[in-house]
Amino acid sequence: MSHTGTSGQPVPQRTAEQATTPREPAQAYAELVAGNRRFVDGTPRHPNQDAGRRAAVADGQHPFAVIVGCSDSRLAAEIIFDRGLGDLFVVRTAGHTAGPEVLGSVEYAVTVLGTPLVVVLGHDSCGAVQATRAASTTGSIPGGHLGAVVDAVLPSLRRAQAQGVDDIDGIVDVHIAQTVETLLEQSPVLADEVAQGRCAVVGLSYRLAAGVVRPVAAVPAGLATVEVPTDPAAPAAA
């Protein structure tokens, strides 16, 4: 169904699925943080995970966030953000390294699917970062394609060293911020979407034991400070 806009041309109506999907960067970020809060508090809703949702998104997808995350098995985006089918466009590599295929996937989500938020999701005790530091210390690069992962993380390690950051989790934060910069520097398409205000990029670090995410970097800078409304369905504090 459509109605006639001011130009006289038919304007397609948004589907029910589209109407409930965040289309602004700040709104999308707030939705992710709220979902993570539910996960941490042990009050997940498990939204959009039933047969009705499966049928609703069968003919098309409108994810509200791209997650460029580490492949670590403990970093399942739909679980830690309490989301479901069609909500997140997930791209995962060891150490959230960003090669051409990752960049192309992000550009597809942002320009074709209209996704308003890109998240770089790292975590404490990252194995890729540990392997890179070990390789740098010993001068021995792992064999096979693991060497490519180490090569991709090395610039972050060197930046951390230049900043006097030596602990693994501090290096992880530097690497997350570096990946945010890499996405914007290597993808003029993404950079333009951000410049036009249609998209934003945020780097988050996940704590494996606590389950909580915290912002490390954001473009534009104010995105990670948006206030997340209190969940009206959450139980009252004791």
UniProtKB/TrEMBL annotation:
Residues 1-21 have a biased composition (Polar residues). The keyword Coiled coil does not apply. The keyword 4Fe-4S does not apply. It comes from Micromonospora tarensis. Residues 1-24 are annotated as: Disordered. Keywords: Lyase, Zinc. Catalyzes the reversible hydration of carbon dioxide to form bicarbonate. It is an enzyme of class 4 (lyase). It catalyses: hydrogencarbonate + H(+) = CO2 + H2O. PANTHER family: CARBONIC ANHYDRASE, CARBONIC ANHYDRASE 2. This is Carbonic anhydrase. Pfam families: Pro_CA (PF00484). Its EC number is 4.2.1.1. Belongs to the beta-class carbonic anhydrase family. It comes from the Bacteria. Gene3D superfamilies: Carbonic anhydrase.
